[in-house]
Batch of 2 targets.
Target 1
Amino acid sequence: MDISRQRFDSLTGLRFILAIWIAYFHVGHMYDHDGFGALPYLELGVARVDVFFVLSGFVLTHIYWNNRNRPFAFGDFMVARIARIYPLHILALGIMLGFLVLGMVMGRADMAEGYPLEGLFANLFMMQSFGAPGGAAWNFPAWAISAEFAGYLAFPLYIWLATKMKAHRTFFFGLCLLNVYLVDQVHQMLLHRELSSSTMAWGALRGAVVMLAGVGARVAFEDFKVSGFRAGLYALAGAGGALLAAMNHVGTAFVAAGGALMIMSLARIDAEGKGTFLAHPTMCALGGWSYAIFILHVPTFMIMKNALDIVGIPFVVNAWTSLGFTLVVVAIAYPIHKLIEEPCRKAIRGGWEKRARRSKEAQTA
């Protein structure tokens, strides 16, 4: 099979695992920060988000680098990215705004404290990971979407570098990981904290450099030709390495390296026609809901927690209640994905393509 046309279904299933892991962790993080939310097996450092960044870089490169003989259409690329992330991002902000307004109507004006207007604008323009004032408020996990957006802006440069280094693919991957390591070291020297701690401030830098590691991983994937059995072992080793690196805070580059090895190995298993449980149709379907799970889980948790408070039911955070909250988010993700996310994405991309066709027809007329 032509590898450029290969679908890596295991990576779609992986998105679901990462999304529910983040959602499950955030129940304790929000409502029992020093108790259940502080358990090491839930936190596991930074592995969750940085593996997401590597995964995004890998998948986008798989789509666009294989078309490197054509000029890179940055406008088309950005419209596709905006169509992918923006509609549900706006929906999440709208839910939060409606939640706060309802609270004020019910006499809970205190609920609006900590949600400054400048933070809303920072989120609207995807600037919260660039250090914009108030960016931490509103839907706080969306800092990662803003950080990934920084990677989108740099993506034409990444594709250019990948094309220039196509004769030295594995070396290029090594340079990408070295770049993460060096940025992390400089970040610590100047700001006195690890790159993995950057979210609202310098999160954009973190997202961009770790996404580049994903780009390098996809380029090196051309030379990563191992058997399905060995790829399975490498996938386990990569996952374990990323988790250990995160738990022991040994550096973002090592988390990225482990995540990249896992992603490359899962992709190789799919390319060999072997498949994993992550590639099962059910997991692929759930993977399609992963963005809705990620972007909507905090507003959903806030609504559920306040509803319990209103009816006088105490909320005790533990493994089972966290699972219950997470399952509710998964349940609502399906209709949101089908009724809002997919139609909006198609409408935005379709409108852009029609505009491009009309412009081309006008030029040739």
Target 2
Amino acid sequence: MTSHPDIQLEIDGDVAVVRLNRAAKRNALSDSLILGVRATFENLPSSVRAAVLDGAGDHFCAGLDLSELTERDAGAGLHHSRMWHAALEEVQYGPVPVVAALHGAVVGGGLELAASCHIRVADETTFYALPEGSRGIFVGGGGAVRIPRLIGTARMTDMMLTGRVYKADEGERVGFAQYLVPAGQAFAKALELARRVAQNAPLTNYALMHALPRIAEQPADQGFLTEALMAAIAQSAPEAKQRVRDFLEGRAAKVGKS
């Protein structure tokens, strides 16, 4: 269901599984692959209500394919970075919430890609690094914006200055991932979560993807107004009204019960 040779797309009910498929290169990101990620999320079927982003083989993504690293003047470098920004914005601000299934290397551009997802599940083989600092370059795929929001500016600075690598348990503790599972179980947990997310009212998911991160960046008075507007829109949807009626009339599960 995708024409890109390095991406597998499977539709499992109302969940899309998007898998990077360059296992021999540890799913390193070429420009073609980044554009393929963008096109895949732009063109998900309308029936899809959540997605899982996975990597084939032993690693989620080892970052930029260095064989494609070329000398660019400042203008070309600017446009290249902006191309990555547009692609990863289609993950973060696309049509559906995205759950990342992390394992092995989540490094450089791979960490930038993971940071654009809404939920991250890591298994015990996962490790995180930003080697750009030691290579004389700087992040260019949105990492300078997204990663500090996960772990803080000081931790990201340390990673790039010193080459620090975070193991799976450390990464979960500082905020790279919201879930940590045994080795080999990241995809199953991510799929479980995506199926749960897909059952939410679409407008609620939209608010969480598109409004909440922007509210967090607004001054309080603007944030309160944006919240009120989004709450009014979400609760006006027929599906939301039916869910409230189901709860009030005892047909919905209570919190903490399945």
